[in-house]
Amino acid sequence: MDGDVGTVGITNHAQERLSEVIFVELPRLGAQVQKGGAVGVVESVKAASDLYSPVSGEILGVNEALTGKPELVNEDAEGAGWIYKIKLAEPSELDTLLDREAYLASVREQG
């Protein structure tokens, strides 16, 4: 988060499960999205997975680098492989998300 703008992508764990990412469908700039709504697709050699927005808001930016180099998601999922930036419509929705430690604990529990 940077003020009321969040950067969204997939986690390192998720990219490892997907395997080699070969295509990322980015959301449309300016689109209004709802928490839990589909905003794009990540396709790998294993499967195609819909991307769901963790919060409601307006898409302010997309990572155009992924268009020509989708493997950035594998190389740096939680850094240069970010997917989009969103201006939050309802900042209180952040309270429903797991923090990093809780997410990692959940992943460990799932095996």
- The helical percent reads 10-25%
Distance between the termini: 29 Å
Largest sheet: 4 strands, antiparallel
The CATH level-2 architecture is identified as: Beta Barrel
Say which CATH homologous superfamily is assigned. Answer: RNA polymerase II/Efflux pump adaptor protein, barrel-sandwich hybrid domain
Report the top-level CATH class: Mainly Beta
Low-confidence stretches: none
Write out key terms for the chains shown:
single chain, 111 residues, alpha+beta, OB fold (Dihydrolipoamide Acetyltransferase, E2P), three-stranded antiparallel beta sheet, 4 helices, globular
Any overview of this molecule?
The chain is α+β, with helices and mostly antiparallel strands and 111 residues long. It has a single domain, classed as RNA polymerase II/Efflux pump adaptor protein, barrel-sandwich hybrid domain (OB fold (Dihydrolipoamide Acetyltransferase, E2P)). It is 23% helix and 31% strand. The chain is built from four helices and seven strands, in the order E-H-E-E-E-E-E-H-H-E-H. The strands form two sheets. A four-stranded antiparallel beta sheet has the order 1-7-6-3, with no helix packed on it. A three-stranded antiparallel beta sheet has the order 2-4-5. Strand 4 (38-44) and strand 5 form a beta hairpin.
